[in-house]
Write a structure and sequence with these properties.
This protein is of the alpha/beta class. Helices cover 34% and strands 17% of the residues.
Length: 240
Amino acid sequence: MQGDSGVNMKKITILIPCYNEEKGIGKVIDNIPTTELKKIGYDTEILVVDNNSKDKTSEVAKNHGARVIFEGKQGKTFALKTGFKNAKGSYIVTIDGDNTYPAQEISKLVKAINGNDLVVGSRFDTIWKISKLFYPKELVFRRVFANKVGAEMGSIILGKRITDVTTGLRLFKKDLLSRIPEIKAKGLDFEAELTARVISNGLNYKEVKIETNFREGHSSLQYFRDAFRFLWAMIRGRFF
């Protein structure tokens, strides 16, 4: 099959793990740039993995055109792994269902994938520049500070400058997961471990600056507790 530009179409799965995201999931799905992706050669599948939501997440997702599947074992990593197994695309984009990451930004990652194994959307274009210390303003400062400290620590552990360890907006070929050691994370630390395993195995990692939205709904993130989990995930991904 060929796209508008005459190139052979590739299949890309937009994978959205969700837990109680009825307020944001519809906006995420509606803003996925399927038309633009088709123009550059990608057919899009939208796959939502409902991880025991107690609200109308799955109903909203279906109404907005997504394919919805369910994962009963609680934890973001379990939802993601179920999504990976069920994804029809040879390329996978992961994005959170809370609308923190503008889905329109997916195009930036897709345009940067050639020659790279993992492309991530970074919410921070710098770490400690004084004029941008409180940016992005859409995130509470304690979250910004925790992310920047984590990025600094991660850069030391991995021997490579990274600016956003925990970003949930990522793109990679599906076969990447078979080219790195198994991810051992169980929850929100999946992204940090994935970054560590990609870099420590000599694969090509690239960051693309993205914009950020205010979160829709309640966050389950506990900043200081989870900061230690993210740090351990990077150490585990680097050395174990």
